Amino acid sequence: MNRGDGAGRGGVNLPALRGHNEAVLLGLLRAAGPPGLGRAELADGAGLTPQAVSKIAARLAADGLVADAGRGPSTGGKPRTLLRLVPGARHAVGVHLDRDELRAVRVDLAGVVVARLRVPLDFGAGPEPVVDAVVEAVAGLRGRTGTPPPVGVGVAAPGPLDWRSGVLGRVTGFPNWAGFPLREVLAGRLGLPVVLDKDTNAAVATGGPGGPGAGTSVYLHVGTGLGAGLRLDGEIHRGARSAAGEFGHQVLSLDGPPCRCGGRGCLEVLCLDAVARGDLPEAARILGEGAANLVALLDVDRVLLGGRVVDADPDIFVTGVRAALAARPLIDTAPPTVAQAPGGIAEGAAELALTPLYVHPGTPPAGG
Q1: Does this model's pTM top 0.85?
Q2: Rounded to whole angstroms, how far apart are CA atoms 209 and 121?
Q3: Mean pLDDT in the chain?
């Protein structure tokens, strides 16, 4: 097979798809980290010819995105010249819109947070003041004068929402947001590419492809509400109608207390009632029962826990969820691992904004 055609690999030698090949190389260099990679390694990983890699690398270097990283150890011949990603060459902004506060971060190309911002927010005040708050936050995080603008802004908001159209649905408790085109409005105000997704989907994106949330995992969020982010076989699962992950509204008690969604005995109302009473072990036990249902359905590798309630006392929730999973073994194997999530939702939103820059080997070109 011709190495240059990229069949079955990450790269393609077609001028019209130059951007795809550049994204493949950037993805390989990001995954490699500071040591960098030689051109032969990049060619092998991308499924491109060494000549194609040299041309693409030259363009990326001219843009300041990659740089020489010195010589690698010799393997018997001439020492390799290594290339590395230049993390500080660009940045992205991630914004988490919670019901009562806004958190935002600026990250470099490696996803490392270089600046943070946290301010009060009244999500129930409606779209106009929230949009103003996001615009102000992005302006505050853009960095010193003369730096390139962000490559994009990722915004994580309460669901339900349609991540394809960027339009919010009937957010539980906030019906005035229904039908608001948040992504379009923000892109117009900011003059930047904007990605909008549910807060829980952003959380499970933290660390990027291959990061701590990779594989088949679920992220369970306990804050002012309950939700889940799903990562199935390494990919964020949103569902055909962007409705996947409405974890908090599974019914655990048919005759239980009314929930703000209109149902009764939902996991969310039961868990948050226990939190309000100060009974965190009971809240963790209830969360664990819901997690066990999800694990039985999806057979996940790991369960990640986050949100302000969990973050205030993670040991109680990790222990409670772990105990609930161990009490309901369905197959004769070890239960999934349970841990506090490695990063925040704003960081995950920034990761979503970085995603278009990187393509990983095996990913077909858009439209291919």
Answers
A1: no
A2: 31
A3: 85
- The two beta strands, 217-222 and 302-306, are parallel
- Could you give the CA distance from residue 266 to residue 277 in angstroms, rounded to a whole number? 17
Number of domains in the chain: 3
Classify burial at 154, counting beta carbons within 10 Å of its beta carbon; exposed 0-12, middle 13-18, buried 19 or more: buried
Give me the domain span that covers residue 77.
3-85
Q: Give yes or no for residue 12 having a pLDDT over 60.
A: no
Q: Pairing between strand 302-306 and 337-340?
A: parallel
Q: Is 363 contained in some domain?
A: no
Same domain? 114 vs 79? no
Q: What 3-state DSSP class applies to 105?
A: strand
Tokens 């019901």, residue?
99
Distance set, CA 320 to CA 16, 183, 310 (Å): 53, 37, 11
Same domain membership, residue 196 and residue 109: yes
Closest CA relative to residue 226, chosen from 164, 297, 290, 318 = 290
Residues in the chain: 368
Q: What is the CATH number of the domain that holds 312?
A: 3.30.420.40
319: nearest Cα among 356, 361, 282, 349 = 282
Q: What is each CA distance from 286 to 90, 255, 257, 283, 325, in whole angstroms?
A: 43, 16, 14, 5, 11
- Helical residues (DSSP H) of the chain, grouped into ranges: 18-32, 39-46, 50-62, 127-141, 182-190, 199-205, 267-276, 280-298, 308-312, 314-326, 345-354
pLDDT in tens, 232-246: 887 888 887 777 778
Reported as half-sphere exposure (CB side, CA atoms, 13 A), residue 124 has a value of 6
Looking at residue 264, what DSSP letter applies?
Answer: B
β-sheet with 66-71: strand ranges across: 37-38, 81-85, 66-71
Domain at 79, CATH number: 1.10.10.10
